[in-house]
Specification:
Keywords: Plasmid
Helix content: 55-70%
Largest sheet: 2 strands, antiparallel
């Protein structure tokens, strides 16, 4: 059985979806979102695995 992280590997998500995931995981606005954008870049799309790794998975 795949882990949550493994299931996301190679999947592309939009910036809007990435920000919804941050919110769903309790990342504070605006400081947590600013940290994510600084560390992962301010892009239109993200690798879902990168977002989950940033969240600590």
């Amino acid at each position: 059985m795949m882990t949550y992280l493994e299931s996301a590997e190679g999947e592309t998500i939009t910036k809007e979806r990435a920000l919804r995931e941050l919110k769903a995981h309790g990342v504070p606005v605006p400081e947590g979102v600013a940290a994510f954008l600084q560390e992962c870049g301010d892009r239109e799309v993200y690798d879902a695995g990168d977002v989950l790794r940033w969240l600590g998975y």
